[in-house]
Amino acid sequence: MTLYIDPPTWPGHGRMWSHLISDVSFAELHAFAAGLGAPPRAFDGDHYDIPSFRYADAVRAGAAEVSSRELVRLLTSAGLRRPKGRPAPPPAPSPPLDPR
């Protein structure tokens, strides 16, 4: 399991922010973020916004430090990139029930 975080260089709401991603799945990302105590509202389509004062906590918990450019590359190559305004893909269909 590898999660990635970029430096807290993104301003907003009077603080600086990092982006936390997974290159495997959103389930992995949500579980890691929950372990950090990130609220669900911090999820922004394909990443979590992490305030600068929680950056070290994410790294201590195992998130790998990468540049913002590398973070986008990893997210895109994993097929998990969701640009603003692009809706999430529909959930995968459930397997058919065995009629037996």
* Class based on secondary structure composition and strand pairing: alpha+beta
Overall 3D form: globular
Cα Rg: 15 Å
The number of helical runs is 3
Q: Give the topology string: H per helix, E per strand.
A: EEEHEHEH
Helix content: 25-40%
Strand percent estimate? 15-25%
Mean pLDDT: 86
Strand element count: 5
Largest β sheet strand count, sense and barrel closure: 5 strands, mixed
Poorly predicted segments: none
Terminal Cα span: 38 Å
Question: How would you briefly describe this protein structure?
Answer:
This protein has helices at 26-36, 55-60, 68-77, and strands spanning 3-5, 10-12, 15-22, 48-51, 64-65. It contains three helices and five strands.
General description of the model:
- This protein has 3 helices and 5 strands.
- With 100 residues, the chain is of the alpha+beta class.
- Strands 1, 2, 3, 4 and 5 form a 5-stranded mixed sheet that branches.
- It is globular, with a radius of gyration of 15 Å.
- The mean pLDDT is 86.
